[in-house]
């Protein structure tokens, strides 16, 4: 991202930001509600285009996500809500891309789906429906879906995994399971990962680097080890959860 801005009328959501994500890196983006994190994910996923500036993935400009793109970038978004299709089985949800876009046989797709479900600890639930699963299991199914390779993307390029507050609303044990899955999923597909989160345990377990976003600008970017001890006032306030500091809570 170079001089990237996003505006809605007079409202500045992202204000002239710069960021580079390295191949294979895990970056956690933190910041209070309304700071622009969700907009950042939508831009990276190709669901919106920036008002100004440059956004490139593997050196190519990101464009609107289109099903007819010849070689779209391999960007996989894991939603905060699992976003499973209720009318489809687990197998059909996890293998959705393959069923729609690949020429693989039913047996080949089933084998890939089985491997993805095994990787997230859910072997043997292929024929179940999303409504039969717990919330935590649905979340893990969405991770299995992210493990499936995009058959339309060039296989030589590093995939980009986007995680939107993956541990929001989960108990501490479930958080640990999901955080471990983020690291494992990223390693399995040899991906670069960008995680949006408010949870300190997610930062500690998943991040190699941390970027703090507030009021549309990055106020601090650095290694996770430095984040834990930084005296930057934005970082100090975020770590402590204090009402005192440069970040003001959003009005409800």
TrEMBL record:
Domain of life: Bacteria
Keyword Transport: yes
Pfam families listed in its UniProt record: ABC_tran (PF00005)
Keywords linked to the UniProt accession: ATP-binding, Nucleotide-binding, Transport
Domain ABC transporter: 1-240
Keyword Nucleotide-binding: yes
Gene3D superfamilies per UniProt: P-loop containing nucleotide triphosphate hydrolases
InterPro entries reported for this sequence: AAA+_ATPase, ABC_transporter-like_ATP-bd, ABC_transporter-like_CS, P-loop_NTPase
GO MF annotation terms: ATP binding
PANTHER family with a match to the protein in the record: PROTEIN TRIGALACTOSYLDIACYLGLYCEROL 3, CHLOROPLASTIC (PTHR43023)
Name of the protein described by the UniProt record: ATP-binding cassette domain-containing protein
